[in-house]
Specification:
about 290 residues; mainly alpha; MetI-like fold; globular; ABC transporter permease
């Protein structure tokens, strides 16, 4: 019988393999690295944008009355932080309430369109027509119909937000993977069981796409509504201070709107990740 022995080193001893890193520790290190990159890349982009802004203002490529330097905008915010933050809270509340209304209505309308081809053919052209109308032209009419205050602002947010949610919901519910549909039929599941167990969960990624598209639109709708009918809010601040030539304060309000939009979008992404933990495992990662 042949004596098979492990290959030895020059010193005559069998080399030992390197100590294995525990799987949990390796994943934690990777998560920390990804979190650091995720935090540094947006910060780097922000610094680049601020540098370009400072350079354009320094060279006066755009008149300072239209684009003040970053230092002037920061000084304007430092002069009246309480007032700006108060209006930020008002605008954020209008964005969230209008977005919630449009999300509920959009999902329900999408369910109706996906449930019946007759309903889809009957109302899809009308929905497209409503979405195609420039919403800013409806502002004065909303003021006449609903008066000043929150009602026309929420209506404007709703009109801008609901169509992407309707479209994504209907698309998600009508594009259930064929293998899942066959599985449901093989178990003789009822329509309600198929909807609750398969069709709606499979449509959730598409629905979240529509929600993420609609979230920035909600901020745009709130500002447009405040331009037309607002008595408070960041849109109201922009209109008031730009009208008296204080563009630095107006730009401070614009930046606050952008920050609110970024934070709300990031919160929605987190909700998606916690609601759909299986999504990243079944799709390609970047």
């Amino acid at each position: 019988m042949t004596d098979v022995r492990p290959r030895q080193t020059v010193a005559g001893s069998v080399p030992e393999p390197p100590p294995a890193v525990p799987r949990g520790r390796r994943w934690r290190a990777g998560d920390l690295r990804l979190a650091a990159v995720a935090a540094l890349l947006p910060a780097a982009g922000l610094l680049i944008a601020l540098g370009l802004w400072w350079l354009v203002a320094r060279l006066e490529l755009i008149h300072p009355a239209a684009l003040p330097p970053p230092g002037s905008v920061l000084s304007a915010f430092a002069e009246r932080p309480a007032r700006l933050l108060e209006h930020t809270v008002d605008t954020t509340g209008e964005i969230l309430l209008g977005f919630a209304l449009s999300a509920v209505a959009g999902v329900l309308i999408g369910l109706a369109l996906a449930a019946s081809r007759t309903v889809e053919r009957m109302f899809t052209p009308l929905l497209v027509a409503v979405n195609a109308v420039p919403k800013i032209t409806l502002g004065p009419l909303l003021v006449v119909a609903l008066g000043w205050g929150q009602k026309p602002i929420l209506t404007m947010v709703f009109l801008l937000c609901f169509f992407p949610i309707v479209l994504s919901t209907a698309t998600g519910l009508t594009t259930t993977p064929a293998e899942l549909a066959e599985l449901v039929r093989s178990y003789n599941a009822s329509r309600w069981q198929a909807f609750r167990k398969v069709r709606f969960p499979a449509a959730l990624p598409q629905i979240f796409v529509g929600l993420k598209v609609a979230m920035p639109l909600a901020a745009i709708g709130a500002v447009i509504g405040e331009f037309q009918a607002g008595e408070s809010g960041l849109g109201y601040v922009i209109q008031q201070y730009a009208g008296i030539g204080d563009t630095a304060t107006a730009w401070a309000a614009i930046i606050l709107i952008a920050l609110v939009s970024i934070l709300l979008y990031a919160a929605l992404v987190l909700v998606e990740r916690f609601s759909l933990p299986w999504l990243r495992e079944t799709t390609s990662s970047r």
